Automatic annotation (TrEMBL):
One of its GO terms (molecular function) is dioxygenase activity. InterPro entries: Cupin_2, GDO-like, RmlC-like_jellyroll, RmlC_Cupin_sf. The lineage of its organism: Bacteria, Bacillati, Actinomycetota, Actinomycetes, Kitasatosporales. Residues 110-176 form the Cupin type-2 domain. Keywords: Dioxygenase, Oxidoreductase. The keyword Glycosyltransferase does not apply. Residues 1-25 are annotated as: Disordered. This is Cupin domain-containing protein. Residues 11-25 have a biased composition (Basic and acidic residues).
């Protein structure tokens, strides 16, 4: 069965779409409407116009203890080649009927490279971000600019930019990929093109964008300041392609020292405009103080979290998700979320909220009290 043509009634057969009517004339009307490739809205209104968002994706968590060994086996058994392009394990949300997406609008994945391997150069309309989980020695070249990658770094590969990943070292490397792929697919705007070379030429010294645009230090917005994340829409992606962990860590440490909030956070911004890093995607880093817990909130838009350091748990619509470093989890639109840690933790986040804000459909709601835990994941 095609999953691309899902309707609000996936579980029903085509026949059962016709309402069971006793009046033969009415029955005939429904039959003829259907035969003419039409649908009567009054029979499906409640599925379409829901009081609040009803994402098909469900809150879910992928453990590093599952992801990591599988990626390691893939490094041993599967070469990275032209055609397949990438050695990537996509987070596949069980609510999406087999589509390889973490949420309706977001692709999330673990990518890995073995010693001296290169993931071939290509470009595509979907934009991507990389958040490094583990390892060293890899650089991602973006339109000629080789960006070195180390744990905790964020690297951007905007839509339309040539990119390849090269491991110049002898170790394994693992990073999180986030893309707006499902969103661009929904807009029927996917274009893909392989580069004629396996590796595109590197122009000049590594990390050019960092030298040119990374100095100002204005690339992080404090999300604790009300309004800071509501940057203007910028249709241009950030010209700064690398956000270093050292700077993120420094800013979070500063924020934590300056307040007693249980959670502090920064949003990575386009240094030119203060907008999100890509037109479609926002990235943030959140530090849960030891013993801290965030206030419960729900937002429109989907989010993926990557646990960078520490351990703790999140409560998502009343279900408890325990996590530790390297785990990844998804919070679909309008799911109530809160994050807790006894030892302290750093969480990276990827969201589609720039699109919701640009279209005027972004909403968030603080919940009056911590959620009651009714269930534990896994
Ligand atoms: O590294 O270029 O996870 O093109 C999915 C598609 C990574 C990449 C993904 C991609 C890439
Ligand atoms: Fe790509």
């Amino acid at each position: 069965m095609s999953t691309a043509e899902e309707t609000p009634e996936t579980s029903e057969t085509r026949e059962s779409r016709v309402p069971q009517e006793t009046d033969p004339e009415l029955r005939a009307l429904y039959r003829d409407i259907e035969a003419a490739e039409l649908r009567p809205l009054w029979t499906i209104t409640e599925q379409l116009l829901t009081p609040t968002p009803r994402p098909r994706a469900v809150p879910w968590l992928w453990r590093s203890s599952d992801l990591r060994p599988l990626a390691e086996r893939a490094i041993r058994l599967v070469p990275v080649e032209r055609g397949g392009e990438r050695r990537v394990l996509s987070l596949t949300n069980p609510g999406l009927g087999g589509r390889p997406y973490a949420a309706g609008t977001l692709w999330g994945a673990l990518q890995c490279l073995g010693p001296r391997e290169t993931a071939p150069a290509h470009r595509h309309t979907p934009g991507a971000i990389r958040f490094v989980v583990e390892g060293e020695g890899v650089w991602t070249t973006v339109d000629g600019d080789a960006c070195d990658m180390r744990p905790g770094d964020l690297v951007l590969t905007p839509g339309g930019a040539w990119h390849d990943h090269a491991n110049g070292g002898d170790g394994h490397m693992y990073w999180f990929d986030g893309l707006d792929l499902p969103m661009i697919e929904a807009l029927d705007a996917i274009f893909f093109e392989p580069h004629p070379e396996l590796r595109q030429p590197v122009v000049g010294e590594h990390n050019r964008s960092e030298r040119e645009f990374g100095e100002a230090g204005g690339a992080l917005a404090d999300t604790m300041v009300a309004g800071a994340v509501r940057g203007p829409l910028d249709a241009e992606p950030s010209a700064l392609l690398v956000y270093r962990w050292a700077e993120t860590d420094r800013r979070l440490t500063e924020l934590a020292a300056g307040s007693d909030a249980p959670l502090v956070g920064v949003e990575f911004t386009n240094p030119r405009s203060g907008a999100s890093v890509l037109p479609t995607l926002s990235c943030g880093m959140h530090r849960v103080r030891p013993g801290g817990g965030s206030t419960p909130v729900r937002r429109t838009g989907n989010r993926i979290y990557v646990v960078f350091r520490g351990a703790g748990h999140s409560v998502l619509d009343g279900r408890r998700f325990d996590w530790t470093a390297g785990d990844m989890f998804v919070v679909p639109s309008w799911v109530a979320e809160e994050h807790h840690s006894v030892e302290g933790a750093d969480l990276f986040s990827l969201g589609d909220d720039p699109v919701l804000r640009a279209l005027g459909v972004y909403r968030e709601e603080r919940l009056p009290a911590a959620q009651e835990i009714t269930d534990v994941f896994g």
